[in-house]
């Protein structure tokens, strides 16, 4: 048996060794933290005593073709509270409620909420923000911010688009070019004590925001204004549901104007642009109305193009050798295809006529014959070759695609109706883009607005490259099509687009909407000038006009008026011509 004193000495030794080992471990751990983890814990300590407030970056401006600002920024304020720094909750609640026009109960909930920072209201007018700042209320912060501002209000609203409360693009060019325009936010860093109260003597850290890049467009404010004015006028005269116009350079695809009336106010984009009783509407129903208001019909909606599509059928027929300008046809006022009698717009018929005269007369039986000569396989070949079965690639969101019969489902009746622009649908943008390619020498173009991007120093950092399109048509056929379409305006159905001193080419259309029984129409005209060397092309569509609805009667004169004003503006001078108005 071990003596008692020896046993106690052993226990003391074990406890001593255990304590020494524990102390050694603690010292080792402390040394490790001090030598290898000091940066990490220093950062945590600093973070515990820091407050962050973001500084929004100014969004890049958008300029038109003349360097005019069409999307800018206005200085606004964001009012917020820091709970730990508030000295009088009742006073802060009362003042902010009065100054910001917010119910006291709403403000109080945010004032009493224990958090590092609560935003009371953003996008506050600078004058109001300055007034609140001058009161020097404890715990109330007023930071300057930016809000998107559109100097021309509703001009090109469905093209430009707008931004949300976070200054991010929602629709239009604002969302497509978000990466260029958005900039990089900055930050304010302040030091606080253990209670979370800012230390007055402590230096304030600041990371400056980086302004977004600016976007330069091909859109011309002056042309856009005038075209919108003409569109509004015809809309009111004909009590139409909607009027859309596209004006483009057919050589390179640069869009000078894109109008969809009625437009909406870009500075107040959530207020409907038509008188609608919104009482009783659900949030979803109200949002559906806004989405409809924001919709760009030029690219988002499809329609049966009617006789303007005869440009494509004629070009395909001439290119394939299925028809020549001197081929003769007979129009009794209809054409029977299989078991269907398909009528011409002239009930009595055009009688004997050449292909050139058939185009000038917009004769359906002539184009049915050309379509049947081409056949389904060739018709599809040219649909693909002309780019009609794919989207144009425009720099706007939501472009719709062509709605066409499947090749295996297309019989002679479908082929006949397609040949004069019925039983399928395309967008106005696709039509004008394909027509541009047909008259510009035969090269496919990509329609676009974006031209170049510049930084805050006005240095060009990127020229937007839209590439050189592939050839879709021979130069010979393109030249022939320019001649044919000039005759349509000189002596045919498009004679109301004639403009003295200018060589104008074009094609009219009057397409019946579905269902046919409702007798609603879309009147349109596609025109270009000068006919021998096109510099500008325009397409107008008038949706559901009242009274006379023929495209040659109501749409063609609008394009003539547009050309009469913008051709001199573009430096295209009048010339002596032997053509006389029909």
Tell me the major beta sheet.
7 strands, mixed
Ranges where pLDDT stays below 50 over 5 or more residues in a row are 577-582
Overall outline: elongated
**What is Rg?**
35 Å
Question: What does this protein look like?
Answer:
The chain has 582 residues and is of the alpha+beta class. The protein has two domains: 167 residues, Penicillin-binding protein 2a (Domain 2); 272 residues, Beta-lactamase, CATH 3.40.710. Helices cover 37% and strands 20% of the residues. It contains 18 helices and 19 strands. α12 crosses α17. 41% of the residues are buried. The C terminus is likely disordered.
Please give a quick description of this structure.
With 582 residues, the protein is of the alpha+beta class.
Describe this protein with a few key phrases.
single chain; 582 residues; alpha+beta; Penicillin-binding protein 2a (Domain 2); Beta-lactamase; 2 domains; five-stranded antiparallel β-sheet; disordered C terminus
Q: SSE layout and pairings?
A:
Layout: H1 4-36, H2 38-48, E1 50-55, E2 62-63, E3 69-81, H3 89-100, H4 104-112, E4 118-125, H5 126-134, E5 140-149, H6 157-160, H7 172-176, H8 178-181, E6 186-191, E7 205-207, E8 214-217, H9 221-238, E9 242-248, E10 255-261, H10 283-294, H11 297-300, H12 310-320, E11 328-331, E12 334-337, E13 340-343, E14 351-354, H13 355-361, H14 364-385, H15 412-419, H16 428-439, E15 450-454, E16 460-463, H17 475-491, E17 505-512, E18 521-529, E19 536-543, H18 551-569
Parallel strand pairs: 2-8
Antiparallel strand pairs: 1-6, 2-3, 3-4, 3-5, 6-7, 8-15, 9-10, 9-19, 11-14, 12-13, 15-16, 17-18, 18-19
């Amino acid at each position: 048996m071990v003596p008692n004193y020896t046993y106690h000495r052993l226990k003391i030794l074990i406890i001593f060794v255990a304590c020494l080992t524990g102390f050694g471990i603690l010292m080792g751990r402390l040394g490790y933290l001090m030598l290898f983890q000091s940066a990490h814990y220093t950062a945590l300590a600093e973070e515990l005593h820091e407050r962050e407030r973001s500084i929004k970056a100014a969004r890049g401006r958008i300029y038109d073709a003349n360097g005019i600002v069409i999307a800018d920024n206005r200085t606004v304020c964001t009012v917020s509270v820091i709970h730990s720094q508030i000295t009088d909750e009742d006073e802060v609640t009362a003042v902010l409620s009065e100054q910001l026009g917010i119910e006291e109960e709403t403000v109080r909930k945010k004032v009493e909420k224990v958090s590092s920072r609560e935003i009371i209201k953003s996008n506050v007018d600078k004058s109001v923000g300055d007034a609140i700042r001058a009161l020097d209320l404890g715990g109330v912060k007023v930071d300057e911010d930016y809000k998107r501002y559109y100097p021309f209000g509703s001009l090109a609203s469905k093209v430009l688009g707008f931004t949300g409360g976070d200054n991010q693009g929602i629709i239009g060019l604002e969302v497509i070019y978000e990466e260029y325009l958005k900039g990089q936010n900055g930050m304010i860093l302040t030091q606080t004590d253990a209670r979370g109260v800012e230390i007055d003597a402590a230096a304030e850290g600041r990371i400056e925001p980086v302004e977004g890049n600016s976007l330069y467009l091909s859109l011309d404010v002056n042309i856009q204004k005038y075209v919108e004015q003409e569109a509004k006028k015809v809309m009111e005269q004909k009590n139409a549901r909607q009027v859309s116009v596209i004006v483009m350079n057919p050589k390179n695809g640069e869009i000078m104007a894109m109008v969809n009336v009625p437009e909406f106010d870009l500075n107040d984009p959530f207020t409907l642009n038509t008188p609608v009783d919104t009482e009783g509407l659900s949030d979803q129903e109200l949002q559906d109305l806004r989405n409809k208001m924001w919709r760009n019909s030029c690219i988002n909606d499809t329609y049966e193009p009617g006789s303007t599509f005869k440009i494509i059928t004629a070009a395909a027929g001439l290119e394939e050798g299925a028809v020549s300008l001197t081929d003769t046809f007979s129009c009794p006022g209809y054409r029977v295809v299989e078991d269907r009698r398909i009528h011409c717009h002239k009930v009595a018929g055009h009688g004997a006529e050449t292909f050139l005269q058939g185009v000038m007369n917009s004769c359906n039986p002539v184009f049915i014959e050309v379509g049947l000569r081409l056949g389904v396989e060739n018709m599809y070949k040219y649909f693909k070759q002309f780019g009609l079965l794919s989207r144009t690639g425009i720099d706007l969101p939501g472009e719709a695609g062509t709605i066409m019969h499947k090749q295996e489902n297309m019989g002679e009746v479908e082929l006949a109706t397609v040949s004069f622009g019925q039983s399928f649908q395309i967008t106005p943008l696709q039509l004008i883009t394909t027509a541009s390619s047909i008259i510009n020498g035969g090269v496919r173009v990509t329609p676009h607005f974006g031209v170049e991007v510049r930084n805050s120093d006005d240095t060009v950092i990127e020229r937007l490259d839209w590439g050189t399109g592939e050839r879709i048509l021979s130069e010979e056929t393109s030249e022939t099509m320019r001649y044919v379409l000039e005759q349509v305006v000189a002596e045919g159905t498009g004679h109301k687009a004639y403009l003295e001193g200018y060589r104008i080419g074009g094609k009219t259309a009057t397409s019946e909407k579905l269902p046919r029984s409702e007798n609603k129409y879309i009147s349109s005209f596609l025109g270009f000038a000068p006919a021998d060397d096109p510099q500008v092309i325009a397409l107008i569509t008038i949706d559901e006009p009242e009274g006379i609805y023929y495209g040659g009667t109501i749409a063609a004169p609008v394009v003539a008026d547009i050309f009469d004003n913008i051709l001199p503006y573009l430096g295209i001078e009048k010339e002596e011509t032997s053509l006389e108005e029909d």
